[in-house]
Amino acid sequence: MEEQKTAMPQALANDHESLQGKTILLGVSGSIAAYKAAYLASALHKRGCDVHVLMTANACQFINPITFETLTDNKCLVDTFDRNFQYNVEHVSLAKRADLCLLAPASANLIARLAYGMADDMLTTTVLACSCPKLVAPAMNTGMLQNPITQDNLARMERFGFTLIQPAIGYLACGDTGAGKFPEPEVLLEHVYQQLCCPKDLAGVRVLVTAGPTREAVDPVRFLSNRSSGKMGYAVARAASLRGAQVTLVSGPTALEEPPFVQTVQVTSAREMFEAVTSRAGEQDIIIKAAAVADYRPAQVYEEKIKKGPQGDLNAIELERTDDILAWLGAHKTPGQFLCGFSMETQNVEENSRAKLYKKNVDMIAANSLRTQGAGFAGDTNVLTLITRDGARQLEKMSKREAAHCLLDEIQRRRNGG
Ligand code: CTP
């Protein structure tokens, strides 16, 4: 079946995460995981990257270079002495143009050769000439990976500036289960984003983000909660880490994968979130409270499951207020700390949200309405209004990922006195 080249969204003009025009060298070596590199090459190409695939001779036993050529629109390089080149010294020319070199999958043999600077084929010759960031994603049998020789080679590569992408743990093609599995292409893409996209304007900045709902136990079986998916908060944590921040994400229960490059603290109840946030608050430069914290919890948590009793139906659960974490943060704000709350409303959005700005002593409230199309809990888009003491800025409908960047832009502008 012919590959749909327009199936994935192209980079938007205001896309903070654009990879448009980036030159990526993708080194593919002999591993059964080589087929997954085809998906990766395609995903990078669709995001506007100029992808050049270099294969070892062994890799060609697993996947045909034509696959990569079709997916990237570039010649796939294997043989150093192939005369059919665009440039005279192809390996040097490519090495000079590359923004990133990604070795995926990297076999034990490729790792050994690169660890010792051997340049005996097109791939190793080119990598040796590269001065751009280099990522290595090993994929092999657990025994081969854990062999001290391979471990020593990987440590050596790291010492010489390669960044190691840890192999996943799981069922391997050889039938074993263990470490050595090639990470999913989505995980590798996140590493590419981390290296190549966004100005690192939050480098050295400590950011704490909260996300998701909280759950307030009624008994061991039941709880009170809300419809928050955590997507907005996770998008903010991810965006801040792509921009170089040191990010802590305090998350209520969600169905989302923990973002890479972020320290995630999982909590369940409002009380646990209060503890996790307040114990870390003092050392943060920016705190963004996107979590939908429960306002009430059952005054009494039953130790055993509440049974339908002979005395009739359960028709009331006595509730008590939870601690307001954002209000606590507003009262304990450290000098220079930027505090951003979220506000979810169904009516009088701006008025109600502005009231929270003063009541909780925060610098900004990102307000959204459940009544606006494209905003709200479960979807992938949002329509935010950024409310500050001096005004309100309505953002258009956009992906939660892009909204997260616009929120951070506004915070940075204000932190820098703009
Ligand atoms: N928040 C909090 N702790 C709570 C309740 C809310 O930290 N116990 C924070 C949320 O994380 C969010 C902001 O306060 O950043 C606003 O939450 P929201 O529920 O919209 O407002 P409330 O202040 O709870 O007011 P109301 O429920 O009356 O709208």
Protein described:
By secondary structure, this protein is α/β, with parallel strands linked by helices. 33% of the residues lie in helices and 22% in strands. The chain has helices spanning 34-46, 59-62, 65-72, 90-97, 108-115, 122-129, 142-146, 148-159, 185-196, 231-242, 270-281, 325-331, 349-359, 400-415; strands at residues 23-28, 50-55, 100-106, 134-138, 162-164, 168-171, 177-181, 206-211, 216-217, 223-224, 246-251, 263-266, 286-289, 296-298, 319-321, 338-345, 364-369, 381-382, 385-388, 391-394, 398-399. An eight-stranded mixed sheet has the order 12-11-8-13-16-17-19-20, sandwiched between helices. Strand 1, helix 1 (34-46) and strand 2 form a beta-alpha-beta unit. The radius of gyration is 25 Å and the shape is elongated. It starts with 22 loop residues before the first strand and ends with a helix. Cytidine-5'-triphosphate binds at residues 270, 289, 291, 293, 295, 322, 324-326, 341-344, 356.
How far apart, in Å, are the first and last alpha carbons?
Answer: 52 Å
Oligomer: single chain
Largest sheet: 8 strands, mixed
**What percent strand?**
15-25%
The helical percent reads: 25-40%
Overall radius of gyration? 25 Å
